[in-house]
TrEMBL record:
Keywords, comma-separated and alphabetical: Membrane, Transmembrane, Transmembrane helix
Membrane topology: Multi-pass membrane protein
Chain segments annotated as transmembrane: 20-41, 53-76, 88-107, 113-134, 146-170, 176-196, 223-242, 254-277, 289-306, 312-335, 347-372, 378-401
Domain Major facilitator superfamily (MFS) profile: 20-402
Origin species: Pseudonocardia eucalypti
Pfam families: MFS_1
Compartments (UniProt record): Cell membrane
Domain of life according to the entry: Bacteria
InterPro entries recorded: MFS, MFS_dom, MFS_trans_sf, Tet-R_TetA/multi-R_MdtG-like
Name assigned to this protein: Aromatic acid/H+ symport family MFS transporter
PANTHER family: CARBOXYLIC ACID TRANSPORTER PROTEIN HOMOLOG (PTHR23508:SF10)
Chief location of this protein within or outside the cell: membrane
Length: 403
């Protein structure tokens, strides 16, 4: 690329910098909607007479989809460090939208499961690409605020899909859900083409460094392993609590409606926590903020073993939500700040991908505790211990590149 062409492209990126966060936010919102839709349609799938689906088969489909997300996070991050993040974002959004649309016409559960796996690959790539771009274009270097704002989109997508399912599925069936989730790309893709700038680093520098090798070079090796451990623990908390909190609260003696209401409170706390966590991270530093947030998660998860009535339990769950969800988001923000630009997508993708071990393990651990009849109080003690391990992992990340 010529010097004049490079300067022109960088200038265009600077002019369109204000579009980065809203466009990436929209992409992550669609990702959140697509990853949650299986849970929304699963009750209908289990009662769909043409397929004769059993809960065990449904669990396999859900796990296969998460494995696809893991593959995508591990592979798409390094790929976009090589081909460009704008191109990577376009490819992932187009690919998961088309594969999601095909789910609407799947003739049998095996084809449906295969499509969910394939859709999971570009879905897993959306987040590391979006995080890398948002980190680079964060206003005033406020990486924490930019990252947490981006991740709110995931929860918005999850909430909108749940509400859409309430309206659509009883009247028009589960297949239409996948059509409706694919349609927003008809608007988003043209906007990405027109306004999303490329990484200025990719246009201007393009070093020959291997991004995967960078993760294990002196100065980054210990940080990489520590971030992987923190992400496994963080996502174990997120998926374990989101899957089993209502049942654990029932085991504690609360009613079913109370358990479901507390799950909503937990996720409201997540949104509140993200707004606060980014602000704190930008002021005291992402490393201490991330450790503080995991310690807060540990404390408030342990306090859920204390049975209180009425508003008290809602406040406890809200505070747990404030720290649990945004702690993992701060991990992503810290990764984006800790690695050089040419390896940022790879670092974020590897942490997100390896972290899926926790996403898969969380529901399994919670289910095992419930089956053993010890989910309350030991489930919350176990989750508190997981948060403590995550805090220790972040502490083990060297504060500087020298190791």
């Amino acid at each position: 690329m010529s010097t004049n062409s490079t300067a022109s492209s960088v200038g265009e990126g600077t002019r369109n910098a204000g579009w980065v966060l809203p466009l990436c936010w929209a992409a992550v919102t669609l990702e959140g909607a697509d990853l949650v839709v299986l849970g929304v349609v699963m009750p209908s799938l289990l009662r769909y007479p043409e397929w004769g689906l059993h809960p065990a088969t449904g669990s396999i489909i859900a796990t296969v989809g998460l494995l696809g997300v893991m593959v995508g996070a591990l592979s798409v991050g390094p790929l976009t460090d090589l081909i460009g993040r704008r191109r990577g974002m376009l490819i992932t959004v187009v690919a998961f939208s088309l594969l999601t649309l095909l789910c609407a016409v799947a003739p049998d559960p095996w084809t449906f499961g295969a499509l969910r796996f394939l859709a999971g690959i570009p879905l897993g790539g959306v987040l590391p690409v979006a995080l890398a771009l948002v980190n680079e274009y964060a206003k005033g270097g406020r990486v924490g605020t930019a990252t947490t704002t981006l991740m709110i989109g995931y929860h918005v997508g999850a909430v909108l899909t749940s509400l859409l399912g309430i309206v659509v599925i009883p009247n028009l069936g589960w297949r239409l859900m996948f059509v409706l989730l694919a349609l927003p790309s008809l608007v988003l893709v043209p906007l990405l083409l027109r306004f999303l700038p490329e990484s200025t680093w990719y246009l201007a520098e393009r070093p020959e460094a291997n991004p995967v090798r960078t993760l294990f070079q002196p100065g980054y090796r210990r940080a990489t392993l520590a971030f992987w451990l923190a992400s496994i623990m963080g996502l174990l908390l997120v998926y374990g609590l989101n899957t089993w909190l209502p049942e654990i609260m029932r085991a504690a003696g609360y009613g079913l409606r109370a358990g479901l209401a507390l799950l909503l409170v937990l996720n409201l706390g997540a949104i509140l926590g993200m707004l606060v966590a980014g602000w704190v991270g930008d002021r005291i530093g992402l490393r201490p903020a991330t450790m503080l947030w995991f310690v807060g998660a540990m404390v408030f998860l342990a306090l859920l073993t204390v049975k209180v009535a009425g508003v008290g339990i809602a406040v406890s769950v809200l505070l747990a939500g404030v720290f649990v969800f945004s702690a993992q988001v701060l991990v992503y923000a810290y990764i984006g700040q800790r690695y050089p630009t040419w390896a940022r997508g790879t670092a974020l993708g590897s942490a997100s991908g390896v972290g899926r071990i926790g996403a898969i393990s969380g529901p399994l651990v919670g289910g095992a505790l419930l089956s053993a009849g010890i989910a309350y109080p030991w489930g919350f003690y176990l989750f508190a211990a997981v948060a403590a391990v995550a805090a220790l992992a972040v502490f083990l990340v060297p504060a500087t590149v020298r190791e």
